[in-house]
Amino acid sequence: MEKIIISGGQPLNGEIEVSGMKNSAVAVIFACLLVDEKVTLKNVPQILDVDVALQIMERIGCKVSRPCVATVEIDASEAQGGRAPHELTDKMRASYYLLGAELGRFGHARVGMPGGCNFGVRPIDQHIKAFESLGATVNESDDIVEATATRGLKGGNIFFDVVTVGGTMNALIASVLANGNTEIENAAREPHIVDLANFLNTCGANIRGAGTDTIKVNGVEKLHGCAYAIIPDMIEAGTYMVAAAATGGRLRITNVIPKHLESITAKLNEMGVDVAEEDEAVVVSACERLEHINLKTMPYPGYPTDMQPQICVLMCLASGDSRLVEGVWDNRYRYVEELKRMGADITVNGRVAVVSGGKPLHPARVRAVDLRAGAAMVIAALAIKGTSEIEDIRYIERGYDNIVGKLKAVGGQIKKIEVPENLIYEG
Ligand code: EPU
Fold it and tell me: Could you tell me if the CB of 125 is within 6 A of ligand 1?
């Protein structure tokens, strides 16, 4: 078991390079199952979720190699369906993409119910609805989802009842090799949906409209191998933007697409933080006094739920009361108890949190209760003078590529240490 120790109170200054996007990489990796030739993926982040996705691909018969750090080669020509071990699919939410990929490639899928961060009920009914719209029969039993389309999938109309990122991506994955045309309505518009569509189109798929709420897919018979670079991770970039503002520093954050960061930039500007855009970088300069704001998380292009805990830390440091509304998940405030250990004054009522900013914060021993909550703990600890400890950091490592090394290089007093199991904090 490892933990992160941070001596905070120092401004972060310098340059940080952002890695490839977690939520795109995991979908694209499973989508490689549709291609029975070698695919080379570049700008792949080195994170636990990617490691698990690649292990699953190997276990179902794909040849996987990493010729260099951010490059992965996947050859799924000899893959077989229905063999993904539950102890691996259970480790990550994105294993649900295997359902769409196995169904698209083999006409049959058998996958354990996905795991992932716990913030309330995380249903997959919309994914199942999409598969059924393409002609599959789906059964759920004993934590296993089994889907079958005996004569292969057929194009169809899919109308989502809620805007779902995973559902939209799974519908895309399942439909590219289906027989006929598919229309996906009320589709999510996140940049990683466009990235997945661009990847599949580079392999020979025929997808139009990704990035809008109507996506059209003309089924093709076969996909071919390609080389493709994953887009930069907007949530990793946003996390370092907030870290610069929280520590009173100045960071140039490179390998980003500034357009993807607009909602985050807008909220930082509202708090008084300066963000200068370059072609593939943003420069974030902290301000003397952070202003309180109101914010609601929403699907893209709204402010992302995956940046909610991080901006909450900034609200704690701002003057006055901020109002935060979680618009995507039922229960994404578990980290609030941890921030309270550092002196934060936050009242949660359902999906609304009122943050009374400007209260004195102090270092503490806290937990990363999930991935983005863990990032928020890191930011808070960097901002607060004194030594804080963050436990359960495996959550952070699921989604942040070398966070300790990257923050150290810009002046963060941060290290990772091994903790004997009998000294793990249970509070
Ligand atoms: N929903 C349903 N039924 C479904 C699917 C979703 O009711 O079948 C609901 C969910 O309960 C939620 C809302 O729809 O209230 C949106 O869920 P969505 O499907 O968009 O979430 P997801 O695809 O499971 C991805 C990211 C999350 C991110 C959300 C929202 C991956 C692997 N995960 O989850 O990322 O919060 O989109 O943007 O792509 C993270 O990276 O920390 C993370 C949790």
Answer: yes
Ligand 1 proximity of 189 Cβ (cutoff 6 Å): no
Mean of per-residue pLDDT scores for the chain: 95
E strand or H helix at 308: helix 308-317
Give the domain ranges of the chain.
2-19+232-423, 22-229
Residue minimizing CA distance to atom 23 of ligand 1 = 166
| 216 alpha carbon – ligand 1 mean position (Å) | 22
**From the CA of 266, how far away is ligand 1's center (Å)?**
23
| Phi, psi of 96, rounded to the nearest 5 degrees | -65, -20
C-alpha 94 – ligand 1 centre gap (Å): 10
Q: For 146-171, what is each residue's pLDDT tens digit?
A: 999 999 999 999 999 999 999 999 99
pLDDT for the residue 116: 55
Q: For 279-321, what is each residue's pLDDT tens digit?
A: 999 999 999 999 999 999 999 999 999 999 999 999 999 999 9
Q: Which residues contact 422 (CB under 8 A, 6 or more apart)?
A: none
Phi, psi of 412 (to 5 degrees): -70, 130
Minimal CA–CA distance to 28: which of 106, 113, 94?
94
Checking if the pLDDT of 120 tops 70, the result is no
The answer to whether the pTM exceeds 0.90 is: yes
Domain 2-19+232-423 = CATH 3.40.50.300: no
For residues 169 and 147, what is the distance between their CA atoms, to the nearest angstrom? Answer: 17
CATH number of 22-229: 3.65.10.10
pLDDT score of 195 = 98
CB 418 within 8 A of CB 1: yes
Same fold, 2-19+232-423 and 22-229: yes
